[in-house]
Amino acid sequence: MLSSRTSDRRHSLRLAAVTAITFAALQLGWSALSRDFPGHKDRPSQLRGLTRWIAEDVVPLTEEGPVETARTLAIGDSRTWSAVDRFVLDRSELGPSAVLWGSGGDLRVLLREAIRIAPEILVVGNSLFGAGPMECGLI
Amino acid sequence: MTFDSVVFWLFMPIAWAAWRMLPFGLAKSALVILSLVFYAWWNPAYVLLILASAALDYAIGRALSRATAESVRKRLVVLSIALNLGLLGFFKYTPLALATLGNVGGFAPDQDLLDSWIVPVGISFFTFQTLSYSIDLYRRRVEPAKSFRDFLLYVAFFPQLVAGPIVRARSFLPQLEQRSRLSPLRLRYGAYRCIEGLFLKVVVADGLAPAVQMSFDQASGVLSTAGAWYAAILFGAQIFADFAGYTGIAIGVACLLGLRFPENFRAPYLSTSLSEFWTRWHISLSSWLRDYLYVPLGGNRRGPVRTYVNLMIVMLLGGLWHGAAWNFVIWGGLHGIGLALMRVVSRRRGERPLGRASLAAAWLGVFAFVHVTWVFFRAQDHATAMTFMEAMLIDPLRALGGAEGALDGRMASSRYAVLLVPVAVIHGAQWAHERLGAPRSEIMRAVAAGLMLFGITIFRRAESFQFIYFQF
After folding, report:
1. 3-class secondary structure, A60
2. CB contact A23 to B (< 8 Å)
3. Are B412 and B214 in contact (CB under 8 A)?
4. B248 Cβ partners below 8 Å, 6+ apart?
5. What is the pLDDT of residue A135?
6. Which of B322, B371, B382, B433 is catalytic?
7. pLDDT for the residue numbered B214
8. Is B184 close to A56, i.e. CB distance below 8 A?
9. Which residue is closest to A21 within chain B, CA to CA?
10. Which residues in chain B have Cβ-Cβ distances shorter than 8 Å to A15?
11. Among residues B119, B120, B102, B123, which one has the least CA distance to residue B111?
12. CA nearest to A53, candidates A69, A39, A40
């Protein structure tokens, strides 16, 4: 009886070792592989700014200026990006400024980012289409 | 406190030490207190509700076990059923009833009241447990609980308190008579179930959640046929991983403490008939509905028509049990219709076994049916469900009829399909075990546990989602 319990415990330890070795081997392999992974999924925008993937890598947004630290953040679609002159803004008391825009100006995604960043002044420049369908209650 | 939180895994060793190391009577008291703390973490006020519900059912149970006159026993069990269903009905279905009455009667119910209404977490589960205790006592299928402490532990035991499995008193109360030995095998199995459950929840279910959410949020006319089917399949995998993950952890935690819980899932998407699906999906609920609703209604003993009616009643109420919304009733109703139709077909076919091709077709049919019905379960409103139905079922017919662009539209990223692999592996392993008699290898489980721990540490998402069945 005693030897059966002892062998059962040994068996448990062996299995725990198998789990630990599998886990450690995968961690080692992953850390070796991930050294070559790019740090960010960012790429320079076609004109200016940096396009990065947000919302769990499903929506590309382009940012221009110090988005995380700007006093004024303008969000919207490409027209907002074209219309906002940061040169003027940065030289006024509203600066420093930044623009965060996405194709179509999906307000659900933009507002989520804006809430996360929490700028002092938020400017929303968008068309009705960016606010989503009427039944969403956004407009 | 949820199973995928750090707090729970700090709480668990305390519960384990209290249950395994204290003198047995004290250990039971400690586990009752810890279970109530577990529940209070969510909303302390509703601990009083569990205490009141358990106290009433315990008192009725004691009276039932002492009463000898059949009329008195019947009155007592009816009282217990009325109290439990009244409690469930009041807390869970008042908003639905008010909204429906408002729509029918043309008045507007107080929106603030509807918005602020809080349904106690797990009320559907613990009221079904207390109901089964009273009914089993009435049927003389269970011995009464030895003390209120034992009964409260049965009702409020933390692993199954908020989302099941629905444990029967006749299997749980005898386990409180003496502390069972904790064998290394049980410890290994419990640890494996916890790791598997956590992996299913934090990697698979939470990983699929954004794709499902986006597909259902953006359904209005933009999803292609393939996109709608893909979203339904992703949701089928998400709800399986979420719920089987939760109950797997519950079973594992109970096992680590030295207690046994019933199995709740057995690779449901392997089913080749709808009745088989319900013996593999949420087994503790479907067996509860069978024993306490379908059989008392007459089951299949009162002729075919009555059988179909009984199936419909059970599935409609089963749907309503899931949530106070008409989409759950539609989901249950569709399953009821499906079960009745399958019974008609099997009555005509007789007992002849299906050939391989027919089995494959039956599997595909059940898989498709279950995933079509999941749309009603998941859709936030009727319009979304209808848009999905159009994309899944009508657009392919339009395309066959020659309509151009009928199948066009969007679908979620195909990258999410990688998260279907673990669900497929679980089903494949069960299939190999059932059909080919492949033994369950502990070495393979140990390797799988290492893989899943790696998955949890590397692929765990920053954003976590509530367990789907908590809302029920």
Report:
1. strand
2. yes
3. yes
4. B193, B194, B196, B197, B200, B265
5. 46
6. B322
7. 80
8. no
9. B450
10. 188, 442-443, 445-446
11. B102
12. A40
Under 8 Å between Cβ of A66 and A60: no
Q: Which amino acid is at B90?
A: F
> Which residues pair with residue A122 across a beta bridge?
A73
The model's pTM is: 0.79
Contacts of A26 in chain B (CB under 8 A): 450-451, 454
A20/B185 Cβ within 8 A:
no
Q: By the 8 A CB rule, do B285 and B322 touch?
A: no
Quote the percentage of chain A above a pLDDT of 70.
73
Mean pLDDT, rounded, for A91-96: 86
Answer yes or no: is pLDDT of A31 > 90. no
| B210 interfaces chain A, CB cutoff of 8 Å | yes
B210·A26 Cβ contact <8 A: no
Whether B223 contacts B411, CB under 8 Å? yes
Mean pLDDT value of segment A47-71: 75
Which residue, B264, B194, B201, is CA-closest to B419? B201
Residue A137: pLDDT over 50: no
Looking only at the bridges linking them, the beta strands covering A72-76 and A97-101 are parallel
pLDDT digits (tens, 9 = 90+) for B409-419: 677 777 889 99
The pLDDT of A57-84, averaged and rounded, is 83
Give the length of chain A: 139
Asked if A12 lies within 8 A of B184 by C-beta distance, the reply is yes
- Residue B214 in contact with residue B471, Cβ under 8 Å? no
Residues 213-242 of B with CB under 8 A from A: 214, 220
Q: Flag whether residue B115 sits within 8 Å of chain A, measured between CB atoms.
A: no
State yes or no: pLDDT of B350 exceeds 70: yes
Q: Is the ipTM of this complex over 0.85?
A: no
Q: Would the pLDDT of A136 be above 50?
A: no
pLDDT for residue B98 is more than 60:
yes
CA distance B327 to B114: 18
Phi-psi region of B411 (alpha: psi -120 to 50; beta: other; left: phi over 0): beta
Closest CA to B235 of B392, B103, B112: B392
How many CB atoms within 10 Å of residue A11? 14
pLDDT on residue B175: 92
What is the least distance, in Å, from the CA of B299 to any CA of chain A?
A: 44
* A16 at interface of B, judged by CB pairs closer than 8 A: yes
Inter-chain contact B450–A11, Cβ cutoff 8 Å? no
* Interchain contact B361–A (C-beta under 8 A): no
A41 pLDDT higher than 70: no
Neighbours of A108 (CB within 10 A): 16
Closest partner residue to B453 (CB to CB) among A5, A8, A23 is A23
Q: For residue B161, what pLDDT is reported? A: 83
Q: What percent of chain B has pLDDT over 90?
A: 51
- Listing DSSP states for A71-122 in one string gives SEEEEESHHHHHH--HHHHHTSTT-SEEEEE-TT--HHHHHHHHHHH--SEE
Which of B188, B451, B457 faces A22 most closely, judged by CB atoms? B451
DSSP 8-state class, residue A129: G
Q: Among A73-82, B103-112, B151-160, B450-459, which is the least confidently predicted range?
A: B103-112
Structure token pair of residue A129: 């289409």
B322 is catalytic: yes
Residue of A nearest to B210 (CA): A56
